[in-house]
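Annotated sample (chain length 265).
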Amino acid sequence: MKKSVISIFIFAVNVMLLVSACGNESDLSPTTTSGTTTSTTTTTANATTSLEIFKKIYGATEVYLEGNYAIIKTNGLPDHKSPYYKDTQWATAKYEAYNGTNTKFALNPNRIASQSLVFKIPINPTKASSTSATPLGPIGVSLNGVPFFNQYAAMNAPLTNEVNGFDQYNGHPQQQGQYHYHVEPTYLTAQKGKDALLGFLLDGFPVYGPLEKGKTVTNSDLDGFHGHTHATTEYPNGIYHYHITDADPYINGNGFYGTAGTVSK
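Output written by the structure step:
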């Protein structure tokens, strides 16, 4: 009888230990938020962008959240010098004659003018079910508040001739004086690094420079939209992001990867 009681007691203890072990195993599993793990090894196509990341756009006059969007206001004035500041109110401080390497450089007749741009960018970017082409005009905003434009000149012409009007920092103004970048903003990559976050497109996905883990990114490393998905400094759990390269389409390929927000003037 005594031996039977002892056996039952040992069995009960073993059951309790087994239950406890199962509970601990559950506690060690990755937690989930909105169906994605918080493990640093997990990469996702989309992620929420915090206000602090958007505040890296130091050229903005205002950055704040409005519902599911970040509102970014900017005057579009580059913080670097340019020959396109000639004959403007900022000429004394900002004019600099062209000193780049393009022997075919020709100053276009436009001059930089202040803008009133309001970018409304989703903070929870997701892959669009039906993609849309990027428009002429602003398709995103860089860290210094200057807009990104796509790979086309007016009338969707290639940039073949227009590149000869890019200043030493790879930007130029259009007819209304809106300064912009179609290609790598070399002032920013010199200041922040060629592997740095350089801004956002209107769909909320970030734009990074032409280096990644010490390697120059080429178009063959990217998908048709000119991006790919993995972890970055700002998004350790991973996000889809664009890269700037030295070949057409430079910043963005066959339209927005996600659903674009808006920009108004």
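Annotation: The chain has two domains: 2-30, 51-264.
Annotation: The first helix runs from residue 2 to 28.
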